[in-house]
Amino acid sequence: MEIGKNDIPKSLCDYLSLLQLKYDCETVCSLVSSLQKDGVTAFGIIPYISLTTMSALEILASDKDLFQESDILQIKDVRLKLKIFEDGYGKSKKMLLNIDYLQDQVFKNMLKFGFMKTWNIHQNLGIYTDANKRVVGNTQYSYYLLQDNRLLKKSIEKVADAYFTSPDKFNLDEQTGRDCYEYAYKCGQIIGSIQSGFENFDTPVSIATKRSTVQYHYTDYNTNVKSSLFPRGEDGKATTLYLLHILSTINFLLYVLNSYENDDYGWWLKVNYIAYYYSIHKLKDLQQHFIQNKLMTQDISNYFEDLDIENAPYINGTFRNCVMHSRLVDKNEIAIIAPAYLDKSKPLFGLVETCFNGMDYQQLKLSLVSETTKISNVLSRWLGVESLQVKPL
Fold this sequence. Notes:
393 residues; mainly alpha; four-stranded antiparallel beta sheet
């Protein structure tokens, strides 16, 4: 739908943007205090904490004391990973295989004897599921979250040079764990400071989240060896990893993060919309790759028919921009919310109703979860998740 100029002043939009930022920071602070303390959950939540942190930095851009420029760039980089990969499939494939290469080197170097490195007996991919064998994470995607995209976009030769120059920098267990902690601490500082600073802005609010426990299971693979997950070995590796990363992202939201939801002041719809929106876009990129390179088999075509991404019902660029950047005006500083729908008491203040032809907030959220669950089920069948042999973590 086209959104034209309306009578809502920009000053009111700015006020509501700040109010939504307050709600988001309150939600994240409550969520973090409720989270199950484990690595799978910690890595899975990072992009969503980055979303709120970067929104704060964009809205409060005039306050230069919040973060150093290098920190801002890192947060922006991690937030981009909510898109899973920000480029089309061709460039994403290069990044996927570079991540896989780095993980392969890391795990090879963990073998006790050097001569064993050529035996391909190591695992370089760990997959995490819940007790119902629904994939909710994997080690290569977790590793990717804090890696420098600029390096990952380079040739495999340059990535190899970087690894052999400083192998300790790429160590999964130690360096990545430290990076995760330091990064989360930085984000926590800014969100906590905003929560404190906004305490007396508008009216006091207390936002609660539930406590939840996920019984994680796991299985390990060598991506260079043919298996039920990698039936074509090296040839189909990138496609399998691409689908696995999409599935890990949406299932973490569906089956881990959403179980913490209690009070919803807008943040929960935002994160569900982002997962839905970008899963559709990444699958469209993959579909185009298969079509353009004449790789579309009948089985793959059937999966895309079941996904029906060409008719995805809730793709809206204006809404996506708002949930990613949290500003309620467009690039021309014109209010996005239509006056007829403006209501400060509603989650997102009428933005949903404006962008989705009057559909209300709860209806959209339930519909998004339903649509994302359908995508999850198709991808699980495509990857043959039922064949995974998992063990309790």
